[in-house]
Amino acid sequence: MSLLRVSVWRGGESGEFRTYEVPRLESQTVLDVVTFIQRNLEPTLAYRFACRVGMCGSCAMTVNGKARWTCRTHVANVAAEDHLEIAPLNNLPVIRDLVTDMSRFFDKWAQALGRFQGVRSRHDDFPRVLPGSSQRQQIDAAIECIGCGVCYSSCDVVTWNPEYLGPAALNRAWTLINDERDTARAARLAAVAGDAGCHACHTHLSCTERCPKKLSPTAGIAGLKRAVAAAALRGEL
Ligand code: SF4
Ligand code: SF4
Ligand code: FES
Predict the structure, then answer these.
(1) Residue 126's pLDDT is what?
(2) How does pLDDT run across 170-183, given as a tens digit for each residue?
(3) Ligand nearest to the CA of 35
(4) Most buried by CB count within 10 Å: which residue of 13, 26, 84, 173?
(5) How far is the centre of ligand 1, averaged over its atoms, from the C-alpha of 211 (Å)?
(6) Measured distance CA(131)–CA(135) in Å, rounded
(7) pTM for the whole thing?
(8) 25 CB-side CA count, 13 A
(9) Mean pLDDT of all residues belonging to the chain
(10) Among 66, 152, 207, 215, which residue has the most ligand 1 atoms within 8 Å of its CB, making it the best to mutate?
C-alpha cells in the first residue's frame, strides 16, 4: 500500500507543521485524510466539517497552498508527489490546528448590510419575483453562495487591508441590491461605497477562480461599482 506524507498545521498562529503518514486509498478526499489522522494518529487534532457533500462550506482549508473544500477535493487531484500540506484558511485568525475564527468574515456580511430587509408582515401575501426578470437573472448564480470563506481566504486585498469587506460580503450585497423586495438599497450602497468597500477590489479574480461553486464575486463587485457610481451621480449617496 502506498503512503501519503501529510504535513498538517498544529497549534495557533505561531504553530508549526507536523508530518504524518497516511495510507493512500482510491477515491480518497482530503477530508478523509484529515479524519484518518484525527482518528488514528492525533486524537487532539482540531478541524471542522459537517455535510461532507459540498453543501455547508465548513470544511474549507488551505491544501497545498490553495483554499479548497476538503470534502470535495480528491487526493488524486492535488497530491501527485504523494505529499499534502494542509493548513487553516488564510486571512482569518487561527483558533487551533485547522480551525479558524470566522467571526470577522461574518461581521463583514453584517457591515455590508447582507441581511434582507422587507416591509411585509406574515399576514401579507408572498411577494413574487419573476424568474425571468433582468434583476433576478443578474444574480441567478450569486445567490448560491454558501459562505464557505474560500474566496475571502484567497483574496490578496483582504491580506493587504484587513478592513476590506471582501468578495463574499460584497457578493451578498450585490444579490440584495438586485432583490426588488428589499427596502434597504440606498443604505446598502452607502455601506459598500467606502474605502473598504467595492472600490478596494483590484479585480485580481482570485475569488472567482477559487470559488468551488463557480460563482463570480468579481462580476458582482463590478456591478456594485456601477450601482454606487450611478447612485452618486443621482445625488443619492
Ligand atoms: S476580484 Fe476583488 S474581491 Fe476577488 S480576489 Fe480579486 S481583489 Fe479580492
Ligand atoms: S462566493 Fe464561493 S467561495 Fe465565496 S463564500 Fe460564497 S461559495 Fe464560498
Ligand atoms: S463538509 Fe460541508 S462542504 Fe465540506
Answers:
(1) 87
(2) 999 999 999 999 99
(3) 3
(4) 173
(5) 11
(6) 9
(7) 0.95
(8) 10
(9) 96
(10) 207
